[in-house]
Specification:
alpha+beta; 6 strands; 161 residues; two-stranded antiparallel sheet
């Protein structure tokens, strides 16, 4: 990745580049599912992109047609399962509040269907099952908190009346 970044800086062909983030989860570098490749835009010319104001999972916006760099950006995605679950719970609360503020339409089907679709996509279609127990736990956690996020939206709206 370092060599790819240096080459892109010396001879830029794009205004921004996507990096393949490889997530480490439960002591294992994931190779499938949503753990790899987790493409993220991290190298960009600041005149052609900017960080969005999202409080969770910030991303670069305003960039068209980014290139892709070779190599992996290594990401230690959890420092213990308890802390990881606490972080996902915080993220889902923050996302739910933002969805309520933006008046996003959410129904019970989101609580049930979206987690199942997410699990199927990453566990079966993107072969997360090949990452063993860490891959399974990673994907189940993501699917679970997808449903919880939508449940929190519904709960927040009910409290508001």
């Amino acid at each position: 990745l370092q060599q790819s970044i240096i080459a892109a800086l010396i001879n830029p062909r794009h205004q921004a580049y996507l990096l393949a983030r490889r997530n480490r989860f439960m002591g294992r570098w994931l190779t499938h599912g949503e753990g790899y490749p987790d493409w993220i835009l991290r190298l960009f010319h600041r005149d052609h992109g900017r960080w969005d104001p999202s409080p969770v999972h910030e991303k670069v916006i305003g960039v068209d047609n980014p290139g892709r760099l070779q190599g992996d950006l290594l990401h230690e995605s959890e420092q213990g399962i308890e802390l990881y679950l606490e972080k996902q719970n915080r993220y889902s609360t923050t996302q739910a509040k933002a969805m309520v503020a933006s008046d996003r339409k959410v129904g019970a089907r989101h609580v049930v269907i979206n987690p199942l679709l997410r699990f199927g996509k990453f566990y079966f279609l993107r072969l997360g099952l090949l990452d063993g127990l860490p891959g399974f736990v990673h994907i189940v956690t993501g699917a679970f908190f997808t449903g919880i996020k939508y449940a929190k939206v519904l709960a927040l709206r009910r409290r508001q009346g």
